[in-house]
Design brief:
Distance between the termini: 50 Å
Structural class: alpha+beta
Number of strands: 10
Radius of gyration: 25 Å
Number of helices: 13
Shape: elongated
Length: about 350
Amino acid sequence: MRDNSAVVEISDIAASTAPLLERAEAVLVTLSRCLPAEGTWLALSDPSSNTYSTVGSIGLDRPVIDYLDSPSVAEEIDLTGYNRDRPPARVGDLAVPADDLPTWAECLIPAGFQDALGVGLFEPGGPHLGVLSLLFSDREPVSASTRQRLAQLSPHIARAVSPMRSLLATARLVQGASAGVALLLNGTTHPLAGLADDALLSADSPMVATARSMLGRGHIVRSFLWPAEDQSAETGHVRVTVLASSEVPALVAGVLLVTSSADCRGLTARELQVLGLVVDGRSNQQIASRLAISPRTVAAHMEHILHKLPASTRTLAAVVAEREGCYVPSAPSPQLLS
């Protein structure tokens, strides 16, 4: 297969909305036609378990895959530098002989492999995603053309197996979303292609901390309101939607989207704050203490909230607020984020 054909095929895979494992399998089928090897291992980093999780392989038995998914292999990848952005390298090129690496001595050599050509995979302009290894049954030198071909293809492979692809498909389901980021498990954020940036989406933003707290409590999808940075916004608030990522391995916690149009149901900024604390289960006295206002003022706000939603009780008001996302949640305390 000509190099350009492989690039086109893998780029098409990256643009698809297929699940991660299907995209990985399609990538390996394409690679098998242009980079022949006795075995191929494609794995993504899983920060939640400090391992690399296999998302596709060719020519590897189940015991080999199980070994490669173990934490000790992740430690060796760090030791050998395959998690750093550099050109493809053979195991034979490493300062540490393959025989001295447990993965080779205990797993790959007994399985019939003698050498490998590996490369780290990176989200363009972003974090380390995983590794791709071509495994060979002899120690004949890998040709310069094979190295060059893998170097050319690796950025396209990274895009094709990036969990960000699925997040983009998910983001399109939220109508009117104008800005958004991926929430990475390492506590940072990463831009989503096609969506603008927003000051509210900075990694240290209280809004981002609130969204992470919701994901940490097991919510799959959550919608709420937040005061807009641009006070010329029609309602003074934007709608925020946070969706958990279902990709395995889990590099990404979820996606956070901002929609400029927000229906506040006629609630004032203070009433939205009070309603958020009602959703949290706070009493009037607790709300008064939190907002530094009197319990009588809280009761007046509650009367207005019940009228505007409309709802007959504070419990029903909380249900409506959660269902419609018409409240401003209180930012989590630092203890809850640690």
